[in-house]
UniProtKB/TrEMBL annotation:
Keywords: Hydrolase, Signal
One Pfam family this sequence matches: Lipase_bact_N
Signal peptide annotation: 1-20
InterPro entries for this protein: AB_hydrolase_fold (IPR029058), Lipase_bact_N (IPR025920)
The Bacterial virulence factor lipase N-terminal domain, residue ranges: 135-228
GO molecular function, one term: hydrolase activity
Name of the featured protein: Bacterial virulence factor lipase N-terminal/Alpha/beta hydrolase family
Length: 708
């Protein structure tokens, strides 16, 4: 988001509110209204290969070549224009949206839903078949929600026909510009116009081949971005990772803890050396700490990582790795290893909560901190902490989507560096290594597992994902825990607050004034009266609603190459032994006080996107549900999931979530309930441990009351 877009939005919204307050129902037309798909060569609906591609294989976006310096960086940070940094379009993890508009009317009416089926198609160019999708329409857009992620580096077509009807029975119409383009002689077209016309023709032919009926009134071709090439190059480069000498730091009654230094490649641009030039500033955070909002750049030069420029610049980084062991281990005997990945705001110490079942069976448990977590927190020049614990946005950096992509990529790289390094020491059994990830660690683990499949040195005997999810942008926004926090962070962002200030207090917020001056003036305006507070709050709500669809689509597209939704093919093909735990609660249609809620952090599903949450990830991984103990009879290892009913998101590690309280949230368990949730924690830990210790041959459920 950029400030220059927000002030006009605020002004327009205030005008709309005033008109709505003074208006009359007499202005509402009762006559049938014609509806069309807006089309312009200079502002094509997204996704669309009509934009073309630059010489670096990124999407050629309008005015990209006209911006330089800081403005250019902001151009790539904006969710509206970040596509210019990508080597292809999104993979439909967020729904595809095609705009519609009324002809000579302000009213908006939804299309006839019965007319959408088979008359709007997303077509796979390789198979010439329609992609399974849920298609809906409001008065402003057609929405195509895919049932699974599209293939990367693949060509697709969109087609909408005049068999689609308005609620008045009128056919959906083509834009005059669309019709004109198709009717003009090719000799009269510019190179861009000719390219777009050819793509529309291909989309029309694909629609007809897929048995589509009627005349195509909107068609487009788009090519999806690459997913694997960048991480493949990173993983190859990570083979240099190594571990130092073991140092015992703790003798405990149940296990010992050692530490060692993991030396590995570090690809993020914000390093310890940059702390001196960074200042945490609520009014102008990017200007005050620019490296925190920058992203991975190619080692060989250029601005963006693409399928033809895959390896990012890197430095060498030493991080502390914790190694938990049996109490009688001598630090020399080779032992099997469980690699544990923690969740957001946690750290590697979380491994201590699940370690006992493994050390008792002669395993080591290894863990490192993710970027901005634990011992890897950063500080600005005044000593202010920059960590996920202080602000989740330091890791989940939606203010700079390419940075968010990089943070996730680095987390995957770090743990595969650790996996590489475990092969090089004498005190591990490199043929017996397992993966366990919880929450964000479960999300990262899905991608770690995927990227391990084609490198023998990275092999995991089993992978275990506890409460993971996919579709990370909408997942965050629809999370009962993270959603409100993220929404408020967007509404309170300096860009939106300044945009409102330029509209409501223009005398105190001129273009030459700083963000701090403008935002403090707005806060003073709010403090004057409750009416002013309501006005500002209403504008925040309306601007947020206006920006959200494009915001989600742009950020998700830029993070598709770091989202579990797009990292399942290799592990599915390899039949990787897998156990997944989903927290489903024990509510029925609705939850009542005293019942256990579904996952309150990572939603199992989302009402506005079938690609969001744990459920679609389970489907993508092709996992079977088990409802009791099970033993593998195939000889290839189990690929299953458990639906846990007692506790919640964190129960695998600690029983802090009780049944729903009067506020509709997970309550704090009292003494009686605590025993029940402790039992659920034990059930989940025993299930994962049995999967690991049996090498994927068995999952033991010790209490059926804790699963569905």
């Amino acid at each position: 988001m950029k400030t220059k877009f927000l002030a006009p939005y605020a002004s327009a919204l205030i005008g709309s509110l005033l008109v709505a307050g003074c208006g009359s129902e007499e202005n509402v037309s009762q006559a049938p209204i014609s509806v069309y798909v807006p089309f312009s060569i200079n502002a094509l609906p997204i996704p669309n290969d009509g934009y073309g591609f630059d010489s670096d294989h990124t999407i050629a976006f309008p005015v990209e070549n006209q911006v330089e310096g800081v403005d250019r960086e902001n151009f790539y940070r904006s969710s509206d224009t970040v596509y210019a940094a990508l080597d292809g379009w999104g993979l439909c993890v967020e729904p595809i949206r095609i705009p519609i508009a009324s002809i000579d009317a302000d009213e908006r009416y939804p299309l006839d839903s019965a007319s959408l089926v088979n008359n709007i198609m997303l077509i796979d160019a390789a198979s010439a078949k329609a992609v399974p999708a849920e298609i809906t329409a409001s008065g402003e857009e057609i929405k195509i929600a895919c049932q699974q992620a599209l293939n990367s580096e693949s060509r697709y077509f969109l087609a909408v026909s005049d068999r689609v009807k308005t609620q008045f029975g009128e056919p959906l119409m083509a834009d005059a510009s669309f019709t004109s383009l198709l009717s003009r002689d090719e000799d009269d077209l510019s190179e861009t116009e000719l390219l777009i016309k050819q793509q529309i023709t291909l989309a029309t032919e694909a629609y007809q081949q897929a048995s589509g009926q009627g005349n195509v009134i909107y068609g487009a071709q788009f090519t999806t971005q690459s997913v694997y090439p960048i991480l493949d190059s990173i993983i190859e480069h990570d083979a240099s990772a190594s571990l130092g000498e073991l140092t015992k730091i703790n003798d405990a009654r149940k296990y010992d803890t050692y530490q060692t230094s993991l030396t590995m490649p570090y690809y993020l641009p914000f390093t310890k050396e940059d702390e001196a030039s960074c200042l945490v500033d609520e009014f102008d955070p990017i200007t005050a700490c620019p490296d925190l909002y920058r992203w991975m750049k190619p080692e060989s030069g250029g601005e963006h990582l693409t399928k033809t420029n895959t390896l990012p610049q890197s430095t060498s980084l030493d991080v502390v790795a914790d190694i938990h062991s049996p109490t009688d281990w001598d630090g020399k005997q080779p032992l099997p290893v469980v690699l544990f990945i923690h969740g957001v705001t946690a750290d590697k110490n979380a491994a201590s909560l699940m370690v006992k079942d493994y050390v008792d069976q002669g395993f080591l448990v290894a863990a490192i901190d993710m970027p901005y977590h634990g011992e890897r927190i950063m500080y600005d020049r005044e000593g202010n902490e920059i960590s996920a614990q202080v602000d989740k946005a330091n890791f989940i950096n939606i203010a700079s989507p390419l940075t968010l992509r990089g943070n996730l990529t680095q987390a995957v790289s770090d743990n595969l560096s650790l996996r590489y390094a475990l092969n090089k020491v004498s005190w591990t059994d490199p043929t017996n290594v397992h993966l366990v990830g919880h929450s964000l660690g479960g999300i990262v683990s899905v991608m770690v597992s995927e990227m391990s499949q084609q490198v023998e040195a990275l092999h995991f005997n089993t992978v275990n994902f506890v409460v993971p999810g996919q579709g990370l942008v909408n997942l965050t926004l629809t999370s009962d825990t993270l959603g409100e926090e993220t929404e408020q962070a967007i509404k309170q962002s300096p860009d939106i607050q300044r945009g409102i200030a330029e509209t409501l207090v223009p005398q105190s917020c001129q273009p030459s004034d700083s963000n701090e001056t403008c935002i403090l003036s707005l806060r003073e305006f709010e403090s004057v009266s409750e009416h002013n507070q309501i006005t500002v709050s209403a504008l925040e709500e309306d601007i947020y609603a206006l920006l959200l669809p494009d915001f989600k689509q742009g950020i998700q597209a830029s993070t598709d190459s770091a989202d579990p939704a797009n990292f399942v093919q290799r592990q599915n093909m390899a039949m990787q032994p897998t156990l997944l735990i989903e927290a489903v609660g024990n509510c029925n249609a609705s939850c009542e006080v005293g019942e256990y809620l579904p996952d309150f952090v990572v939603p199992n599903s989302s009402p506005d996107n079938v690609m969001t949450g744990t459920d679609p990830l389970v489907t993508a991984l092709n996992l079977g549900v088990i409802r009791g103990s099970v033993i593998d009879e195939s000889g290839t290892g189990l690929r299953v999931m458990i639906r846990a009913t007692v506790g919640g998101h964190g129960t695998y590690l600690f029983p802090y979530e009780g049944p729903m309280d009067e506020e509709g949230k997970p309550g704090i368990p009292d003494t009686e309930i605590l025993d029940e949730v402790w039992n659920a924690t034990d059930t989940q830990q025993v299930a994962v441990a049995s999967m690991v210790i049996s090498d994927g041959g068995e999952v033991m459920i010790n209490n059926l009351d804790n699963i569905e």
